[in-house]
Write a structure and sequence with these properties.
The structure is a homodimer.
Chain A (H helix, E strand, L loop, with lengths): L4 E6 L14 E5 L4 H10 L4 E4 L3 H9 L3 E6 L2 E2 L21 E5 L3 H8 L4 E5 L4 H11 L3 E5 L8 H16 L3 E2 L3 H13 L3 H4 L4 H8 L3 H7 L9 E4 L2 E4 L1
Helix pairs in contact in A: 4-5, 5-6
Chain lengths: ~240, ~240
Amino acid sequence: MEKRKRVEVCFTPGGYEYFKNDFDIVIVIDVLRATSAICAAFENGVNSIIPVPTIEEAKEYQKKGYLAGAERKGQIVEGFDFGNSPFSYMNPEFRGKDIVLTTTNGTKSLDVAKDAETVLVASFLNLDAICEWIIKQNKDVVCLCSGWQDNFNLEDTICAGAISDYLINTGKFYSTEDSSIAAKYLFQSAKKSHLGFIKSSSHRRRLKNLNLNKDVHYCLTPNQTKVIPILKNGKLVKL
Amino acid sequence: MEKRKRVEVCFTPGGYEYFKNDFDIVIVIDVLRATSAICAAFENGVNSIIPVPTIEEAKEYQKKGYLAGAERKGQIVEGFDFGNSPFSYMNPEFRGKDIVLTTTNGTKSLDVAKDAETVLVASFLNLDAICEWIIKQNKDVVCLCSGWQDNFNLEDTICAGAISDYLINTGKFYSTEDSSIAAKYLFQSAKKSHLGFIKSSSHRRRLKNLNLNKDVHYCLTPNQTKVIPILKNGKLVKL
């Protein structure tokens, strides 16, 4: 029998140090909204997305003529035309373009993960597609939740729990960390209604205050695309 | 109507910075096994426990004639007669004594919490007693889980979830953080069988390998004592 592979869940970018050297594949998750927006962008024909950690770097690219988006604390940063709303990326003018993006949490976790062998971007939008691809690789996987300012958040954890639940159910993967076991339990509790379970989530409440209910509903609806964004030489492209 | 008070859950000592300035009462939790051992010690008549962060400090006290315990990675440190097994503290010779203790995770969280107005020690053993006392105080509370080497662990989180569930059910407390909501859900999933739920927990597996099943069973059995250990001038005493 083939040896089973590990799938673990890391709750925050700050906790990634502990997992760093043990996994071939890192799956970066920022459900509300960076990795959902990235999936939506590729589904809609964007050529590449360059994630940058700072607003200053995004501005540099903007000066060079790139389309650049910037979000901080759920809002579009002044001087930019879009942030991390998935609906922004459905603009037909974005097709075939290279886009630069900086966000509060999502680009930070892409940055800490960047030296791994394979770095993928996941959200509820491409859940089954990413799991099916992972199963074929036969490698150890860690789901890296972006969290909220380096704190635990529910929506990323539940998405990571959904991925590990899917992989473990094949019989080809196992988890050992308490964080992974908790994520799987939280996903199982949430299964019947993603939106219902995390309606009390603090980040969702923040987005609600910003009138972004439409975004939240979209980001929590699984399997709207089969695209798998992958990090290649500092750029996200379609696998 | 009286304004409701907050009860939140912090998963690790490393995450405490975020909660630090907003809470009057900190409840330190290290179910396997430091805070369980501390509760057992006071139940059995110990006078005080001096928590120290390093083995060197514990040795200094030992030289001065104190009874001193030291645990690292689940085992008694060489040169010490006891570690953090609750059963060690049931020794009749410990009655009325002042004891020094250093442990892998538990004394670290006592150390980060030490400047709060009130610092209490909780475990499953004194669950109802601590909740009943808290309700009378009408103050904001944070449950600080000790975790495992600054990573999330299940048993501390479920104990914290039990405390917040108890407090919220009175109608006098509320939570806003995602970590607190997750802890409450995990506790509710675990309610029927503490031991069953965390049988897959990584720390429990570590203890099992050390033949400490009896300790684990004891530490997961709620309400065996009414003592509430409180930190006063660097010493834990009975409230």
